[in-house]
Design goal:
Layout (H helix, E strand, L loop, with lengths): L2 H11 L14 H4 L5 H14 L2 H9 L23 H6 L1 H16 L7 H19 L6 H17 L3 H4 L10 E6 L3 E7 L17 E4 L5 E6 L3 E7 L4 E2 L13 E4 L10 E3 L1
Parallel strand pairs: 5-8
Antiparallel strand pairs: 1-2, 1-3, 3-6, 4-5, 4-7
Helix pairs in contact: 1-8, 4-6, 6-7, 7-8
Length: 268
């Protein structure tokens, strides 16, 4: 079995994803004392998408200007199981820029914590890794394959699907948040989930937003069983504890019938 094949098995079979340890969000007040959010977003876009990776790393390591000092620069590189440790070192600089994007467009500063921006940041990671492969002394094929695996991990699996967002819920989605007041991790659903553990969100939701055009049901048990909360389109619940549902959601689905199930609690 090749090294890349072993990496694929380790990442996907174990549900692996880069671990993002995010500090507390920076308040708007601290970022707008002398610098506007528009200035911050313009500069962040330049660093994330316009600069070469080498130039980004140079800025990251340098003494910061007043503008650059407002960003979150902390990173944890490419967290990976031991079987992928060698590739984590190869792609370390690419992961540093990816962390910058997640922290500043996403959870920390929330300059633009949208699905479109997450996809763009993930694509930038892949482009950066492919560029690093061009300077890799080993097999170019193995390097490109490993880059694709790492990209698929952040784009489609695990914690990266919840770590990026900050209080956002896209249109036509049903969103669950890990903390009250639409804080911490978030998932945005468009179809049924019979076991929230599959999304690393079992018994985690503490608040919800229904931006879909249909009612949604959340259940106390997997496979749509036990107690149910039936939530009207456009409704937000900042604290599910008020309905006895804090950290209780194990499955969720859109309502296909004409009315909420008998015995469910209706939120409208």
């Amino acid at each position: 079995m090749t090294r890349v094949a072993r990496i694929v098995i380790a990442l996907f079979a174990a549900g692996f994803i880069f671990t993002l340890v995010l500090p507390a969000p920076v308040s708007d007040a601290s970022t707008t004392a002398t610098v506007t959010r528009a200035q911050l977003e313009k500069r962040a876009r330049q660093l994330q998408f316009s600069y070469s990776l080498a130039r980004f790393i140079k800025v990251k390591r340098a003494d910061k200007s007043n503008l650059d000092s407002r960003f979150t620069w902390k990173d944890n590189g490419c967290s990976a199981p031991s079987i992928a440790a060698a590739w984590s070192k190869v792609f370390a600089k690419s992961c540093k820029r990816h962390d910058f994007g997640y922290r500043n467009f996403g959870h920390d500063l929330a300059l633009q914590s949208t699905d479109a921006m997450k996809r763009r940041i993930d694509s930038r990671l892949y482009a950066d890794m492919l560029n690093q492969c061009r300077h890799y002394s080993g097999s170019q094929g193995d390097c490109r394959n490993a880059a694709w695996v790492f990209y698929q991990a952040v784009a489609n699996f695990g914690a990266a699907q919840t770590a990026f967002y900050a209080r956002e819920c896209p249109k036509n989605r049903f969103c669950l948040f890990d903390d009250r007041g639409y804080e911490d991790r978030r998932i945005a659903l468009k179809s049924s989930v019979s076991d929230m553990n599959d999304l690393n969100f079992g018994d985690k939701a503490s608040s919800v937003k229904n931006r879909a055009n249909v009612w949604w049901l959340i259940y106390d048990d997997h496979d749509y069983d036990d107690r149910a909360l039936c939530i009207k389109p456009g409704v937000r619940v900042a604290d599910l504890n008020s309905y006895g549902f804090g950290d209780k959601t194990s499955s969720a689905k859109p309502l296909t019938a004409s009315r909420c199930p008998s015995g469910s609690t209706v939120v409208n």
